[in-house]
Here is the input.
Amino acid sequence: MDIDIIEVSKGSAKFVLSGTNAAFANGIRRAMIADVPTLAIEFLNLNDNTSVLYDEQLALRLALVPLSTDSEYVPQADCTCGGIGCPACEVTLRLDVEGPKMVYSGDFIAADPKVRPADEKIPIVDLKEGQRIMLEAIAHVGYGRDHVRWQAGVACGYKNIPILTVEKCESCGNEIYETPDGIVYLIDGEARISDDDILKCAKCGFQKRVGDLNDPASLKVTFDETSFIFTLESDGSYSSSELILKAADVIKERAQEFAGILQDL
Here is the structure.
């Protein structure tokens, strides 16, 4: 199995996963969405809220603010405190602002200085003169499979690498009917396929005619069942590279756990 990075940034990545099957590719996708633990606000202690938002609306918005941290917090179910709450499994954040002011995610002050919003410019609510929000938020580690607030991978998907072949082109003529991003082009009247641009093929459900040949089967589209183009976006709680590695760790840990169960049979 090989991974070839096409492009990568802090919040997104695109890579080719080859030498495997759709089941494993989907396992990676699901792990990035549902099984990588993240930190998110779960409870609020509201002391004052005179904004235009109901308490429930405010709680929902704050819960969906991605939090990043360098500290190692554990899920409450795995903590030695038994789920009561301790510095190992939860962190508190305080918010105390008065209008007139636009409240942003960066206005939070966390008890742990290593905990911070992934983006400090997420707007929460616009406070007018005389309005105030004062609260204490409690954040826990959780999984996207339990609630979207803990979903680190917000847009993760894959598709098979397309295989385009020109089966017959006896009279290609002087033009090629439209194909995405110049994937098919002419050289001396002969249709060619650009290997460099093949990954740009978005859906590849087309059967285009080439030149004067009025045969839609002249361009054949098939798919490589062992190679996949992955695209992903992170919510910011992890960088895209960290998200990929943590998803791989989840798959590895589950495989080891399953192997241990089989050995005990």
